[in-house]
Amino acid sequence: MSQIILVTGPARSGKSEWAETLATETQLHVVYVATGNQDVNDTEWQKRIQNHQLRRPPNWLTLEVPRNLSHVIADAHPHSCILVDSLGTWVANYLDMNEETWSNIAQELLETVGIIAAKIIFVAEETGWGVIPAYPLGRIFRDRLGNLVRQLSVISDTAYLVTGGYVLNLGRLGFPLPIVQEDTN
Predict the structure, then answer these.
(1) Which keywords annotate this record (predicted)?
(2) pLDDT of residue 182
(3) Catalytic annotation, pick one of 29, 52, 71, 79
């Protein structure tokens, strides 16, 4: 039986560690889906990747999937746990796409998640708690990620907010708002 879990929060809040804990607790075969692109010229990024790798058990399968996330999820074994870290990086990898193309990609992901039999844990950044970005690409990123996280939270069995090192179960503390489609033109 499938289960969808969303773990969201700001940078350095502990959301990846919490998602890794949840994946370990499943006692299933874990497939860690890294959405970031390797960049050997960016030593700081390489260090972040290395720190994530060192935290994970060696028996987890790691897949680097910067774009075709829906295909990997669709192929998931029913008795596995897929941990996607992170949606923010995945969304950023599509910023070159126009709104219609992006909308189709996001819809494909949501539809795929709704029909799989595996357990899936998504890690997503919260980016909309600050000022409105002063540049168009920043606003596109913030809006796309915010909308995707909101839509995903509605179909998730459990949604957690991790902030300041604390884990909050949003389903126990609140209730989801209905999704209202906004005109982005």
Answers:
(1) ATP-binding, Cobalamin biosynthesis, GTP-binding, Kinase, Nucleotide-binding, Nucleotidyltransferase, Transferase
(2) 63
(3) 52
| Cα–Cα distance for residue pair 28/113, rounded to 1 Å | 18
Asked if 52 is an active-site residue, the reply is yes
- Binding-site residues for GTP: 9-16, 34-36, 64, 85
Domain ranges of the chain: 20-132+142-163
Question: How long, in residues, is the chain?
Answer: 185
Query: What is residue 115's three-state secondary structure?
Result: helix
Tokens of 132: 């409105």
Phi and psi angles of residue 161, each rounded to the nearest 5 degrees, phi first: -110, 125
The residues, any chain, with a CB within 8 Å of residue 171's CB and separated by 6 or more, are 158, 159
126 contacts 168 by C-beta, under 8 angstroms:
no
DSSP codes, 24-93: HHHTSEEEEEE-SPP-TT-HHHHHHHHHHHHHS-TTSEEEE-SS-HHHHHHT--TTEEEEEE-HHHHHHT
Residues of the chain with pLDDT under 70: 1-2, 181-185
Residue list for the binding site: 9-16, 34-36, 64, 85
Residue 144 has what pLDDT?
97
* Fold topology of 20-132+142-163: Rossmann fold (3.40.50)
